Amino acid sequence: MLSESDVLNAVQRRVQEQAATSELALPDTVEITWLSLLEGETVRCIETRKEGRREHFGSIDLSSRPVYDVLSDYHVAPPKSPEERLTLKLVRRGTAADESCSCSNGKVSCPRCSGRGDLLCEETMICPACRGVDSCLRCDITETKNRKLPEGRGSVDERGLCRRCGERDVACTTCYGRRRVTCSQCGGRGLRSCPDCNRAGTQDHDKCKGAGRIVTWTEGIVSRTPEKDTVRKPEAGVPDRVRKAAHESGHWHTMRLNDDQPVPTEATSEFRRAVQPYLTPSKGEIARQATFQHLKLARVVASQHPHRVYYVIPTASSPRVVILPSQRRLWQIAAAVLGALVVLITLLQLLS
Fold this sequence. Notes:
Layout: H1 4-17, E1 30-57, E2 67-68, E3 86-92, E4 97-100, E5 107-109, E6 118-120, E7 124-126, E8 180-182, E9 191-193, E10 202-204, E11 213-233, H2 240-249, E12 253-258, H3 269-275, E13 285-302, E14 308-313, E15 320-325, H4 327-351
Parallel strand pairs: 2-3
Antiparallel strand pairs: 1-11, 1-13, 3-11, 4-11, 5-10, 6-9, 7-8, 12-13, 13-14, 14-15
């Protein structure tokens, strides 16, 4: 763990490394801010139990399913890993019943056709082309030519011979003046297939869905599902370059805890406080595995070096120093770039 002295010495060495090109010296006064990085993952095994009435249409073998009396009291072996998934279906003792349906074979008479399979049907139907209104331009289905043929109506292409009055080029070419045509559903038989039972005369019984028997029981289900929470603190305030350097060479303190295992006493108080919020049991939790990594680094600002910020990262050997431009320096660079763009635009306007 870094001390303030370790931090100052690390920055001093880094300043001295650049002394060949610049007369830099560590100022007497610096501001040190400590940053605590915490990363890891918590995996929890969440168990839920629910009970409800089930029914199955037809035969089903329930003998292989475990039996219980009180669902909450039924013992299931602890998971080998919090990431283990489980769906266990149980049968409550004494609730299974296998009964024949009142229909006996799963079929009932079709109510629409009363079990006949056919429905009465009109042998003929109104002509779909003329709708019976304009079947003949001359006889009006009376078989007598008592109408005057309208001018411009009826041509060989549009009209045919009326089979009632015998006039040419006046009749609808679908019914030929008869207004009605053979029924397309029954083909003129006067009977058509029942659309509900397709001429079978029977339908599946709604109560048993056509199975003829119903099996009912009370089912209990034990489910186990893993839930993962990723930890990355702080979420902001640490530059990506610094976090990357910490992953590359930082000396992290690692901790792995299972279930209700307490935080080791040798862990720093800061580390213990950081991980404690992620160790609170969740509702339905029966197993937990938590892995954490902790790293404490320093952010150093020197008044004599206003354009730089030093980040000191502890490693397995000597601390690593990452230098980044200060916010003030970034604003200056941005202002310089903006000014250069303004000058360039102005010159282009003058030259155009």
